[in-house]
Structure formats: C-alpha cells, structure tokens
C-alpha cells in the first residue's frame, strides 16, 4: 500500500480539525511573529553597543536566527505533536494506533500537520531577503540548493529530537518535560553563534545534541566565517547528520514501542 | 477450527509500589520498589466462528489485558494466541485488518471533525473498496440511524450517538471478529437496547464473532449464550449461561400478596426475607421444595391474592460466585 496518498488524506483531516479553532489559529501566527521579531530586536540592541558578537555582525546573526526559525517551522509542522505522545499513552488513546493495519509511527506522525507555523515562514523569508540585501549575499543556484538541503537536515535533526523525547514516554510515561529541560534551552542556545560559547558547549552541540548543524555550521559556509575547533567542511554535513540522527531516533521509538507492548502503561 | 485459540497465557506487569503519605511519596521519587503483578494467570479458551462470548470479571480482573493481547497491543509473558490463524502480537497489522475494536470509554473517531469524515478516513486506512463502503454505510445508516448526525462534529455527539458511530466505524472493513470493551457503558436504556439489537443483528446476518466485556449483566443475558468469567486474572468459569443459572439459580423467591402482612410462615425449606405492607418475599431452594408445593402449603393457612416467582438475576449469581468461589468441577473445557 502506498503511504503517501494516505499521508495527505490524514494530514488534510488534521488541518481541517485545526481550522475549527480559527481564533486560536490566527492568534498563534501573530504571536509567533511577534516573539521572533522581539528576539531580533534584542539582538539589535545588544549589537548596537558591541558591533559584533564573537566576530558576528547583527545581520549575520539575523541570518543565523532566520535559518533556525525556518527549519524549526518546518519541523513543528510535521513533528511537534510527538512532544505530547505521553498524554496519548496516559489516557489510553495511543492504543488506537495499534489496532489499525498501518505502521504506528506513520499513523501517529500523520495525525497532525501544524499549519500554524506560517508565522515562522513569514518571519524567516522577510529576514532572509532583508539580510541578503544588507550584506550582499550572492544567491547562486548551488547556494540555494545548499540552503534547502541544510533546511531538510535541520528538520530531521530537530524532528529526530522530538521523536526521541516522545520515545522516552514509552519508558517514563511522562516525557513532555524533557522538551522543556533539554530541547527548548538547546534551541535557544543555537539562536546565537556557537563560537561565543565555551568549547564544551560547542562539542555537545556538534556531537551529542547536534543542533549546531541546524543553523550555525551551515551559516559559516554561506557567510564565509571561521569555525574554531572544527574543520571547514563541517558546514556541509547537515543533511547527513540529519538522516543519521533521525534514523537513530526512529530506532529508539520503535524499541520503545516494543517495550510498551510488553509492559503496557 | 476455532477462530480464536488462547492457550495458557500469562501476563505479568512490574508495578511501582505506592508509598503512603507525603514522606512516602517523596521517598518513592528517589527509590522505587517494584512488585510483580500477575494480571492474567494461565488462561485458556477457544471460540468458534459466529459465537458471542461475554468476557466478564470485576474491575482489575484482567479483562482489558486479555483483550489487548488478543488485539496485538500487548505481548503475553507466556502462552500462545491465535486469532483467525494469526499470532496477533507478531503480525499486529495483519491481525488489525481481521478485527474490529470498540473501546467504550474512548472514541476512535476524529474528535473535531464531522462524523462522516472519520468514516472516510477509516475507509482509506483499511482500504475498503468504494462499493463495499457504500453498501456498508447504507446498512449501518439504516440500522443505527447515523443520518441524523453524520455532519455533526464528533465532540458534539451525545454518548449514544458516539457509540453508534464508533461501532459502525469498527465494522467498516467487514472484520470477522469484533471486540467490544464495555459497549453500553454510560448509555441510557433506549440507547443500550439499540446497541444490543445491532450487535445481535451483525452476529446473525454476518456471522461476526463477538467478544464483549461488560459490567452490565443484561448485555450478557440478552446477547451471549456463553460466558467466560475471570477473577484475579484466572478463569473461574467458561460455559453456558444457562448452566450457571442451573447451578446457582436454585434459590428462588416467591412473592405473595396475602391479606395479613404480619402473617407467619412456618415452612421447611423457605424463609421470609422481606415484608412490605401485605406483600411477603419468601426465599426457597428448588431442591428442597418446589414452587407448587410451597404455594400449596401457604394456601393451607393463608389466602393468597396474587403471586409471582422471581428467577435469580445473573448479576446476583455472579456476585455470589465471586464471593464464594466456584467449585472446580463446574469449570468446563
């Protein structure tokens, strides 16, 4: 059976369900744009005093932020509801995914498609255009392709992280707080160039929670920046890291599921 | 060949021991003790195609755990299960297309969308052909009266409507086996009756094998001719409902309206259990004294205006079984 048409049908239902709550939908989009604009304003205030942070100018940092926001936007569209898998397990609704003749990971993934992330897209497109004009980034074809593959890599890395967090629910029953304890701070960290952090933090974001590959490493390629401690080609690795990390997360999720099947909740 | 075969299945869980009091709960934050809980102990049974079996037991007896193992959600700790020739926990997805499942407490429908959309999505998930879908929908719409709420979002349905939609949804793909976990819970009398008629009908017309768990003994009495009774994870009875009634139904009650409600009855094998104005309830054991004998004895000393003999409800029989246990010799199979 082909999963792709089924995915669109299920996702379409998810979107229609989301649109039942119009007010909440629009408020969220406006809220997100405002929040990110606020973050950009903070950067501007900070750099107004210092000119550059770790060798990064205001516009370069805006670029870094926009890259993080766009891949996070794509990521939450597809994967954000994984964060709440624990609620499904606790109230027993997860069993529903196990009495249907389709793959449970696929089924759970296609339950929701959060089009509220439009806010992130609007913000990041405006910022990309603005920065490109301000510091004359020459958008050749390969650079655009590089950017797209980086975004896909970033989506897989952050989506993988959400999948890992959700998989923990199979062991701990409650897992949403891992999002707030681990993922939320890590994401905030990567809104700034990693070069400003101690070596240990940089190593963690490269090898353990590979969020450095979401925006920092690829940005150094496009903006021509130095990456101390890391070889120059590191910026090209995002898609590869994304695929590997996501497969790892998927494997963990499936092991969690088989544990769930032997222990219940 | 039986459509469901369960052989000596066990299911153990490790459950965190709960400590009492504030200090206890703080302590259990850091150090937790686990105890083994045997939810299902050495249960075996087999069910033939077209049977309707009531799976009954008090809360926590292991009913849901068994159903979860039959549907492939849980893997048994030991023992074997075959459902329609398939081991459910090994080929869960394949098993899923052979079964319909309704959990009475939780809907499987898309909460925020008009009811019809859930049916259309399930059609895609189970790959039901257009012709089959149309045919089934027509039948279910007629028997279950789905028309009146097909365009209403599921969250706005009444419980009765939601259950009707849920059971129709579970049968869209024509499964040969249907698991119903508390299908009438919380429904009013009319809705319960509708649900039972429908279950009977699909069992009769389509030869769907039905396994249902319930707390409502009326469900069992009206729907099933066989019941499997479990308690503390063990099977205590498996067989005819009439056999249980036969064995435990010897105690009956004669209700008589006499002229004088204060009247005394001195009859061997019968005793007064209740009085209300001029009405008297006399409990008697069928083996010691027959109903006609008893009535004859009463008419010797009193004039009877009216009388009825009450059969024991299966409900009271079952609660007696749980209290007193069941003699080994009665466990058939």
From TrEMBL, chain A:
It comes from the Bacteria. Pfam families: ABC2_membrane_6. Coiled coil: none annotated. InterPro entries: ABC-2_transporter-like (IPR010390). The keyword Nucleotidyltransferase does not apply. The chain crosses the membrane at residues 25-46, 58-80, 115-135, 141-171, 192-213, 233-253. Keywords: Membrane, Transmembrane, Transmembrane helix. This is ABC transporter permease. It comes from Pseudoneobacillus rhizosphaerae.
UniProtKB/TrEMBL annotation, chain B:
The keyword Acetylation does not apply. InterPro entries: AAA+_ATPase (IPR003593), ABC_transporter-like_ATP-bd (IPR003439), ABC_transporter-like_CS (IPR017871), ABC_transporter_ATP-binding (IPR050763), P-loop_NTPase (IPR027417). Keywords: ATP-binding, Nucleotide-binding, Transport. SMART domains: AAA (SM00382). Residues 24-257 form the ABC transporter domain. It comes from the Bacteria. GO terms for molecular function: ATP binding; ATP hydrolysis activity. Pfam families: ABC_tran. PANTHER family: ABC TRANSPORTER ATP-BINDING PROTEIN, ABC-TRANSPORT PROTEIN, ATP-BINDING COMPONENT. This is Vitamin B12 import ATP-binding protein BtuD. It comes from Pseudoneobacillus rhizosphaerae. The lineage of its organism: Bacteria, Bacillati, Bacillota, Bacilli, Bacillales.
């Amino acid at each position: 059976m082909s999963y792709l048409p089924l995915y669109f049908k299920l996702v379409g239902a998810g979107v229609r369900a989301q649109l039942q709550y119009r007010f909440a939908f629009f408020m969220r989009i406006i809220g997100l744009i405002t929040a990110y604009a606020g973050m950009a304003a903070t950067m501007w205030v900070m750099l107004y005093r210092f000119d550059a942070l770790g060798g990064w100018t205001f516009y370069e940092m805006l670029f870094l932020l926009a890259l993080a926001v766009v891949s996070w936007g794509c990521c939450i569209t597809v994967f954000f509801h994984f964060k709440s898998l624990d609620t499904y397990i606790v109230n027993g609704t997860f069993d529903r995914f196990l009495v249907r003749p389709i793959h449970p990971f696929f089924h759970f993934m296609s339950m929701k498609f959060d089009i509220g992330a439009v806010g992130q897209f609007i913000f990041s497109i405006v910022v990309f255009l603005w920065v490109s004009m301000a510091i004359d980034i020459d958008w050749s074809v390969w650079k655009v392709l590089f950017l797209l593959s980086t975004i896909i890599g970033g989506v897989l890395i952050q989506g993988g992280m959400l999948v890992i967090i959700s998989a923990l629910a199979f062991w701990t029953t409650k897992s949403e707080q891992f999002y707030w304890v681990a993922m939320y701070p890590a994401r905030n960290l990567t809104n700034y160039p990693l070069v400003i952090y101690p070596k240990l933090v940089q190593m963690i974001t490269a090898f353990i929670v590979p969020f450095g590959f979401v925006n920092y490493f690829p940005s150094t390629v496009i903006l021509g920046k130095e990456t101390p401690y890391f070889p120059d080609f590191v910026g090209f690795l995002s898609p590869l890291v994304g695929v590997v990390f996501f497969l790892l997360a998927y494997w963990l999720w499936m092991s969690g599921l088989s544990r769930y099947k032997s222990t219940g909740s | 060949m039986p459509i469901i075969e369960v052989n000596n299945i066990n299911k153990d869980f490790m459950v965190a021991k709960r400590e009492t009091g504030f200090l206890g709960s703080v302590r259990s934050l850091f150090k937790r003790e686990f105890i083994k809980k045997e939810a299902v102990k050495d249960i075996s049974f087999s069910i033939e195609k077209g049977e309707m079996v009531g799976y009954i037991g008090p809360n926590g007896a292991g009913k849901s755990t068994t159903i979860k193992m039959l549907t492939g959600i849980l893997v048994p700790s030991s023992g074997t299960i075959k459902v329609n020739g398939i081991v459910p926990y090994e080929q869960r997805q394949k098993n899923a297309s052979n079964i319909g499942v309704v959990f009475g407490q939780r809907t499987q429908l898309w909460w925020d969308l008009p009811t019809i959309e859930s049916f259309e999505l399930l059609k895609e998930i189970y790959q039901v052909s257009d012709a089959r879908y149309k045919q089934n929908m027509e039948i279910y719409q007629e028997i279950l009266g789905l028309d009146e709420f097909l365009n209403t979002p599921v969250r706005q349905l009444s419980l009765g409507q939601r259950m009707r939609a849920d059971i129709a949804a579970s049968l869209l793909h024509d499964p040969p086996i249907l698991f119903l976990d508390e299908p009438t819970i919380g429904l009013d009398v009319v809705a319960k009756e509708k649900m039972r008629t429908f279950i009977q009908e699909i069992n009769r017309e389509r030869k769907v094998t039905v396994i249902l768990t319930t707390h409502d003994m009326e469900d069992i009495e009206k729907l099933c001719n066989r019941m499997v009774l479990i308690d503390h994870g063990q099977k205590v009875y498996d067989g005819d409902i009439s056999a249980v009634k036969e064995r435990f139904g010897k105690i009956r009650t004669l209700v008589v309206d006499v002229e004088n409600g204060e009247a005394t009855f001195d009859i061997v094998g019968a005793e007064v259990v209740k009085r209300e104005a001029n009405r008297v309830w006399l409990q008697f054991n069928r083996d010691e004294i027959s109903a006609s004998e008893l009535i004859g004895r009463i008419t010797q000393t009193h004039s009877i205006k009216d009388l009825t003999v009450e059969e024991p409800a299966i409900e009271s029989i079952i609660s007696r079984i749980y209290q007193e246990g069941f003699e080994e010799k009665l466990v058939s199979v």
